[in-house]
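Figure 2 data, in text form.
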Amino acid sequence: MDIRTEAAKMKRTAPVLASASNEQRNKALEAVSEALTLHADEIFEANQKDLDAARRDGVAPAVQKRLKFDESKLRDVKDGIAQLIRLPDPLGKIELARSLDDGLDLYRVTCPIGVIGVIFEARPDALVQISTLCLKSGNCAILKGGKETAETNRVLFGIIKDSAISAGLPENCMLQAELHNEIDELLSCDKDVDLLIPRGSNSFVQYIMNNTKIPVMGHADGICHIYVDEEYDRDMAVSVIIDSKTQYTAACNAVETLLINRRIAHYFLPVLANALKSNGVKIRGTEEVSEIIPCEIMGEDDFATEYLDLIVSVKLVDNVDEAIEHINYFGSHHTDSIISGNDDNTARFMQMVDSAGVYHNCSTRFADGFRYGFGAEVGISTGKIHARGPVGLEGLVTYKYKLFGHGDIVADYASGKKKFAHKSIRTGSDSCF
């Protein structure tokens, strides 16, 4: 298969998919959900092949957990699809309506981005989430999953594409790339692919960004922090930290660094250390931390490490300002949380931390499109242009300006014969013709 040729076909198909009604797209999502249930045994059998191969190849247990697609994962993706169906149509929304002059009306209207290439980690549920988000938002999708779940991805993709086509969506609305060399082919499709969303390691994302002219949206790492303030609830802090580190250790929103206010360290760290040890978490701390609890001593540069494992860094800070400074310097601008009962410190943290997600008294693991009610996510962006944080439907649409006139010409306004009115138009509707 030649990705360049197929991408060109998808570019021509994109306007057709963009014109599909919300009812058609929802019908396709319903068909996908039903087909996933109907073919569940086939999916599980393929996934077992991937899991057996991963064990033979010595893939780390934490990574193996991400590869698994079982009844629980099936329920989760079906819940995500149901949530997507319930969400309002992201297309055709009027964001601006303005009369430039009598009979010369301007509208800014949401529309799909077009053709989106998503290169994602070996997680089968990600393929379902990404595919269905692209279908709902009217975008053609080129999907390249990790080789560790090749069998599962192949079965899932076939089910989803067949369901979409049977529901009346165009044949070239989806494409699966399976070979590694096809990634480089995809990176060269700057005339036909409108956006790339890479999900994976720091080095992989950086490679994508440095080797294509296609706009790239995503994040390279997930170095997330929790700062425990001087005024805090001890039990809450322990609970939130344990959840943030252990609920899904290999996720990009798992906490990697704990910043503890120096005034509470002697009281809080021993309690926290026991809780972390009970949950199998190893502590790496500064020399100052090692004087209070047993831990492996680390250097300042280690705070730029994304462990994705049962390991956490610990450092003491004087106050919320020092915590903010550390986070903004070492963090990846993903998700950071403060545990505090002080309103002023909380407000300062929430305002000054420069991250896509800034939380108060809750786990960093909430940084997720499904938990935000987006109907899962196509990825998480730490950039500041177009989309930030979990990227759901709103992050997969752009807009166009539609201007309706009656033979109007700029020369009339340049000569002073006519003057612009620039009056707002009341549309009485969120959708446009």
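Caption note: The CA atoms of residues 21 and 186 lie 29 Å apart.
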